[in-house]
Specification:
Layout: H1 9-23, E1 29-33, H2 35-40, E2 48-52, H3 60-73, E3 78-80, E4 93-97, H4 101-104, H5 113-129, E5 132-135, H6 138-148, E6 155-157, H7 173-183, E7 189-192, H8 202-219, E8 227-231, H9 239-248, E9 255-259, H10 263-272, E10 275-278, H11 288-294, E11 299-302, H12 307-311, E12 317-319, H13 324-336, H14 338-351, H15 357-373
Parallel strand pairs: 1-2, 3-4, 4-5, 5-6, 7-8, 7-10, 8-9, 10-11, 11-12
């Protein structure tokens, strides 16, 4: 699952390996990588080495070929950084569970009977057989207890970190022109970053933006005079309904789609945003609001799942993601209210200090040692 170029699990695995190399020079680490990542991977220390595994994620070969590679290494301990561990692996292992999104929001991909059966089997067997479960939030721990009856003492909550490359920067005329030239962003903007899936509630966000725009046009208020910038790969399963919604709500001149952006461009988009919005119905952790806070941008976010836990109750303006009127009002409030904006920015910069990739790796290494010594 390793990747330096993606958010989510790829980033988590990348940061874990990078920081374990700084913390542990005694143990030998074997990194199993698919061909593309294997070709570009540079071991971060002399006690790390790579093994090539040609097995696409969530595939039958992941259950067979990957299993053979694991068995050939005779590991003392394996760490599966996502739920998709081989069913017949008999070695000692720990698993990280980032979320149970597919249990609550199966979406439109791979949700036929066979795929649902395979998902539930791999997830439940992996959680049951793991010596220890790492959950990335208290909310994910609660979901594991409620859905799979996982004992609380088996689960260790280890928060993700925030990259220190996300730092505040005062928007300048030059940075604005760069964003306009590259992405066509010409005004102050509301920013959403993330994947395009139904649980991300992008359709709800579009409706809230349309409502805000209508209210300000009818009352001639000056508060909402910006654009909505949406990053992320244009998922062919979900893109048609998003584009159709934009057309239906007459937002074609208001919404800017950037596509998947580099880390550098993502940082610039955060730093120059007026407000960051995170309207998800469900998150296992929710890293983007923290990245926005780290860049000194006020956050309006959903009050569901792990989001209040991660953001902290006083560090974002929360709304019910199913209530369009409330979402519209809260986004508008953060856009306009200068005293609120100042407070959220100050509180957010303090909040992100609680999250560190190094701390995540330290706590994960402690889990390894507890399992090996237990």
């Amino acid at each position: 699952m390793y990747s330096s170029g993606f958010t989510g699990i790829g980033r988590y695995t990348f940061e874990l390996i990078r920081h374990l190399a700084k913390l542990d020079s005694e143990d030998e680490f074997v990194c199993f990588l698919n061909p593309a990542e294997f070709e570009t991977f540079t071991p971060p220390a002399s006690n790390f080495r790579a093994v090539r595994v040609d097995a696409p994620h969530y595939s039958l070969t992941e259950q067979t070929r990957f299993l053979q590679k694991l068995n050939s290494e005779k590991l003392d301990l394996a760490h599966f950084t996502h739920f998709n561990s081989p069913l017949f692996y008999r070695g000692k292992f720990v698993t990280t569970i980032h979320d149970l999104t597919l249990s609550f929001f199966p979406g439109k991909k791979m949700n036929d009977f066979f795929h649902r059966l395979a998902y539930n089997l791999v997830l439940s067997r992996g959680v049951a057989r793991a010596r220890k479960i790492i959950a990335v939030s208290k909310n994910t721990k609660k979901d594991l207890q409620n859905l799979l009856q996982t004992p609380a003492e088996k689960i260790k909550v280890v928060w993700n970190g925030v990259g220190r490359e996300f730092t505040p920067s005062t928007p300048t005329e030059l940075s604005r022109k760069q964003l306009e030239k590259k992405f066509g962003i010409s005004q102050n903007y509301l920013l959403y970053t993330g994947v395009w899936r139904d649980h991300k509630n992008i359709l709800g966000l579009l409706s809230a933006v349309a409502k805000s725009r209508e209210k300000n046009l009818s009352s001639r208020k000056r508060g909402w005079s910006g654009e909505l910038v949406i990053t992320g790969k244009k998922n062919p399963v979900y893109a048609p309904e998003i584009f159709a919604k934009v057309k239906e709500l007459d937002l074609r001149k208001t919404v800017v789609f950037t596509g998947l952006v580099s880390d550098e461009d993502l940082r610039k988009l955060y730093q120059n945003a007026r407000v960051f919005v995170f309207p998800s119905f469900y998150e296992g952790f929710g890293l983007p609001p923290l990245e926005a806070m780290s860049c000194g941008i006020p956050v309006a976010a959903s009050n569901s799942s792990s989001i209040p836990e991660v953001c902290g109750e006083k560090n974002a303006e929360f709304f019910n993601p199913k209530n369009m009127e409330e979402m519209t009002a809260k986004i508008q409030k953060v856009w306009e209210d200068e005293s609120l904006r100042k407070r959220l920015i100050e509180n957010g910069l303090k909040r992100v200090l609680d999250f560190s990739w190094r701390k995540m790796a330290e706590e994960t290494l402690q889990v390894y040692r507890e399992v090996l010594e237990g």
